[in-house]
Structure formats: C-alpha cells, structure tokens
Amino acid sequence: MLEELYQKVVEKDPAQPEFHQAVKEVLDSLESVLEKHPEYRKVKIPERIVEPERVILFRVPWLDDDGNVQVNRGFRIEMNSAIGPYKGGLRFHPSVNLGILKFLAFEQVFKNALTTIPMGGGKGGSDFDPKGKSDNEVMKFCQSFMSELFRHIGPSTDVPAGDIGVGGREIGFLFGQYKKLRNEWSGVLTGKGLQYGGSLIRPEATGYGAVYFGEEMLKTRGKSYNGLTCLVSGSGNVAQYATEKLNQLGAKVVTLSDSSGCIYDEEGINAEKLAFIMDLKNNRRGRIKEYAEKYKNVEYKPVDPEMDHNPLWAYPADCAFPSATQNEISAKDAQNLINNGVFLVSEGANMPTVPGGVDIFLQHKILYGPGKAANAGGVATSGLEMAQNATFSSWTRQEVDQKLHNIMISIHAQAKAAAEMYGDPTNYVLGANAAGFCKVADAMMAQGVV
Ligand code: NDP
After folding, report:
1. Has 123 been annotated as catalytic?
2. What is the position in ligand 1's atom list of the atom closest to the CA of 258?
3. pTM of the predicted model as reported, rounded to 2 decimal places
4. Which of 190, 293, 195, 282 is nearest to 244 (CA)?
C-alpha cells in the first residue's frame, strides 16, 4: 500500500525528484509503524501527510542597480499545521523550485515534531541568487518578496526563518518590510538581529545542535570528541558553527568548502582561522579558495564536474558533518568515508546523503544521524526565539544554549527509543521518522479530517 502511495506521488508530480526521495525515505520507515497503528491507515494519514495544506507561488519583480527590471519566482509551502504554526526557513538560491521546497517542507514537519516545541512544517524561498548582488539589490528583492508573502504569514500562522542564501542581512530586510506593511511588530520571522527581537545562540544553533547530536551518538559507544578528526562541508552558517563547537570540544576540523571547491588543512581550522572564514563569508562574501592563499600547507581542490566523487569526503577522518546542501554525499562518497575510517556522520544539511549512501552507512552500522534529527537545533532555537518574542523577554546565552543542548539530548533519546521499539535499534533514520510521524499523526487523528 505504501509503494502504491509512493507511485501516486511520483505520477502526480513527476518533475519533483527531491520530493520523491524525501517521501520514499519516510514511507520506507513506516511499514512497522503502520502495523502497530492500523488506525493511521484507516483515516489515510500517510495519504494526507504527503499533500501540502497550501502552496503559494508568486511573482517577485524588482529593479537592479542599473534600473533594469528583474523577475524571480517566490514560494511558500505550508505543509502541515497539525501541531503548531507552519515553521521553516526561506532559501534564496538559483536551484530553488517547487520540488526542492516541497522536500524541505516535508522533512521539516517531522523535524519540528521531534523538537518538543509545538511547530508545524513549512518552507519557502526563491530562485533569486544573492551572490554578486549589492546590498541595495538584496534589499529591493527582499522588499518585493515580502510585499506578497506578508498576507500569508503571521506569528500564529506561519513563521519563516533563514536557510541557504538567507542570513541576518536578508531577515532584517524582510522583517522591515513586513512591519511596514502590517504596522505591527511581532515575532513573524526568526533569526532576527539581537537589537530587534532575535535570540542569542540562534545563529550558532544548527551547527552546535548537529555536534551535540553527534556527542549523544558517541556516548552510546562510550566515546567523546576529544582528539577526533572531522570533515565539515560548506562554509556558511551551519558549517561555521559546527566547526566552532567541534573545536571547543577538543576535535580537529580539517576541511570546509563552497560551491567552487574545498580546502584541506591537516593542521586543523582553529579559532583564529575560523574567524578568517567568518569574515570572508559573512562580511566580504568571498570564496573559500582565499583560505588556501592565506594559510600555508593547505590544499585547495576546485569542483571538477567530471569527477565521480567529492574529494572532501576522501580524506582520512573519524567524523563527518555535511553542512552544505542536499545530495552532496553520493554512494561512492559514502564508501570513501567508510574506507577512510569515518564512524560518525551527523547531518547539518538537509538530506545531504543520497539513498544509496544512506544504505551504506546503515549496512556498516556507523553512528549515522539523519538531518531531520541532527540539524533540528536550528528550528528548535527558532521556537525559543518565538517564545521570547511572545513574552517580550530575552534569555541569556547560557540559558538558550542549555535549552538547545537539552532539546538535542531529547531528540536523540526519542529517535533511539523509536528505533528500538520498531526493531532496528541502531537505525536513527527509522527512529527519527517513526517518532516524528507518530506525533504528527496523533495530532491529525485528534483534529478530524481537515
Ligand atoms: P548558507 O547559505 O549559510 O551556506 C551554505 C553553504 O553551502 C555555502 O558554503 C555554499 O557555498 C554551500 N553550498 C550551497 N549550495 C551548494 C551546492 N549546490 N554545492 C556545493 N556547495 C553548496 O546556508 P546554511 O549554512 O544555512 O545551510 C546549509 C545546509 O543546512 C542546507 O542544507 C540547509 O537547508 C541546512 N539547514 C540550515 C539551517 C539553518 O539554521 N541555517 C537549519 C537546518 C538545516 P556557496 O556560498 O558557494 O553557495
């Protein structure tokens, strides 16, 4: 029956491969869950959960610095609001399309359910590319984007945040336009600046959270990060703070990347070098290659489309934190990781490993934390930002970090317990999908056919 449902999803929207991939992974985990819970089948929870509650698609016209009219496409997928207001980031990247955002919104539903905070799932964005644009152009684009989006969102309806290409700068411009149009200050976006309602630790949360999740997995084998060598991909928000936390916990990070190439620094990317990366990426908006020009004994490998694997995943290490984008670890990369000694993968990015790669991790029984569990710290801390906004309060750095840490411990415990309950104790993919699904399914059951 689940195979039949999957085929229907593919037939209905044949041009959405990433969405099919995300749906298949969850449906594959549900066989044993539905055996225990036939009531979910009866009211067609699986059929309803793969269908977005609402999809908004709109034109985003704006004027560039030369006075030319530019046109992009804007999206918001309101996937599921059974357990709380829609919540999920906005992605600005040329690769954005309906299928990519549906996959991200679908993942978000289960991820948010695991956080223990009442948040539904959503995702949005645009095919706009902030790279190479002036601050003025980014502002004009954000204002036009929000001029349509504002009528669909609200602090109790739908609360967007950042994702690839949407950081503090973009959230500021989006928030300013929302406030102007509504004549209202509210916590309608998260990832805001500290001066206007943002939460301490929100920028750090996804990267820190992925490292905390990995720490819980390590504890199951009586290990810690001390002295371990780690591969991190990407060099944006998630990668930067995963690196920071790994350094703090005594590990050594030897790689980072961007869409042009990767660097390998055998000595380790210490705090001083990480500060260089943060300035390079967050202020100067430069390329990772500059790291290899600045520091000695660093290898830089440009992306080679002819290559059948990503060299970043072929360096010897103990742990890997994919933190760039979807499907960045192929089956060959997964095998390279195993061959080179990696025994822990904690996914900062969403769905960074192709299904064949996931199979390899599961077969080898390494500690594998899928994105929807391992990177949930970002949205969880967005939930904490919403709570602070709703009560006009602000918590200290230590308070938020402690809450984030406790949430990651809880997510790990839920995924582990569900994996055990459904018969495959070391399989966090099964555990995260089953635990997240049951929470949303129970809420949907309670609310009737809506
Ligand atoms: P950023 O835009 O800050 O950084 C993204 C990084 O990944 C950049 O280094 C970018 O390089 C690289 N990258 C993006 N697309 C590609 C690509 N197609 N090929 C190679 N490299 C690429 O985004 P985030 O750090 O916020 O997001 C990274 C991942 O983490 C995404 O999968 C996102 O969905 C996920 N995530 C983020 C959360 C958050 O709180 N920010 C929460 C949960 C998940 P370049 O600059 O060259 O494009």
Report:
1. yes
2. 11
3. 0.96
4. 282
Percentage of the chain modeled with pLDDT above 90: 100
Q: Cα(394) to centroid of ligand 1, in Å? A: 28
C-beta separation of 317 from 254 below 8 A: yes
Tell me the CA–centroid distance for residue 93 and ligand 1, in Å.
10
Q: Is the CB of 237 under 6 A from ligand 1?
A: yes
**Domain-by-domain residue ranges, the chain?**
49-185, 205-369
Domains 49-185 and 205-369 share a fold: yes
Sign of the CA dihedral running 417, 422, 427, 432: negative
In this model, does residue 103 exceed pLDDT 80? yes
- pLDDT mean over 245-265: 98
> DSSP string of 336-388?
HHHHTT--EEE--SSS-B-HHHHHHHHHTT-EEE-HHHHTTHHHHHHHHHHHH
Would you say 299 and 264 are in contact if contact means Cβ atoms under 8 Å apart?
A: yes
Is any ligand 1 atom within 6 A of the Cβ of residue 377? no
Tens-digit pLDDT profile for residues 40-52: 999 999 999 999 9
Distance 324 CA to ligand 1 centre (A): 4
Q: Which residue, among 47, 434, 336, 419, has the nearest Cα to 345 in the 3D structure? A: 336
Comparing CA positions, the residue from 204, 200, 125 lying closest to residue 160 is 125
Compute, in angstroms, the gap from residue 260 CA to the centroid of ligand 1.
Answer: 13
263-280 average pLDDT score: 98
Name the active-site residue from 102, 111, 123, 301: 123
The Å distance, Cα 450 to ligand 1 centre, comes to 35
125 closest CA partner among 150, 172, 89, 168: 89
* Nearest CA owner, ligand 1 atom 28: 324
Q: Ligand 1 within 6 A of 325 CB?
A: yes
Residue of 162, 161, 127, 168 whose CA lies nearest to 285:
168
Q: Is the CB of 310 under 6 A from ligand 1?
A: no
Q: How far is Cα 199 from Cα 383, in angstroms, rounded to an integer?
A: 10
- Name the residue with the closest Cα to ligand 1, atom 5: 236
At the topology level, CATH places domain 49-185 in: Rossmann fold (3.40.50)
pLDDT of the residue at 1: 72
Find the angle CA(173)-CA(197)-CA(155) to the nearest 5 degrees: 80
Helices H / strands E in the chain, number of each: 17, 12
Architecture of the domain defined by 205-369 = 3-Layer(aba) Sandwich (3.40)
**323 in contact with ligand 1, CB cutoff 6 A:** yes
CA distance 213 to 126: 30
Ligand 1 neighbour 358 (Cβ under 6 A): no
Q: Is the CB of 52 under 6 A from ligand 1?
A: no
